Predict the structure.
Amino acid sequence: MCLFIFLLTHGILKIIEHYNVSIGNSENKLTDYFYIITTNSYLRPSIILLIPIVGIFTNKKIGWILIQSYFYFLITNLVFPATQIDLTDNTLILINIIGFLLLLLIIILMNKNKIRNLTYGIKKNELISKNIIASIIGISTTIILVMIKNNLI
């Protein structure tokens, strides 16, 4: 939660700084702020971090799906750039492998009986379908962000 507040305040401060440097005093400040918000990615990290935060405070199946989808999002965000790394840089390869294994461990722990059954009420026969939904949400979020970053949307 503290990370979300930090990212949100950092994004807002960057928007205000961007406004003061590039636009300054104009007649329609609200339109200028909306333009900065939509053309820059200052608030994007805090918006993405809302996914697991909402999932934590929702103790239902949808909460578990949101938390899982965030971890699938992190894995796909780690894997896509890893396809373009230099294969001679062993440190970067090791960091990517450790990050991938750590995220995979978190996903495995989320699928354990104690967490998924007691807190979120997911039975074993529902587990595969919920994981598929979470992975689709996580991968779709990554694809949408890549498309936005490359100005395809």
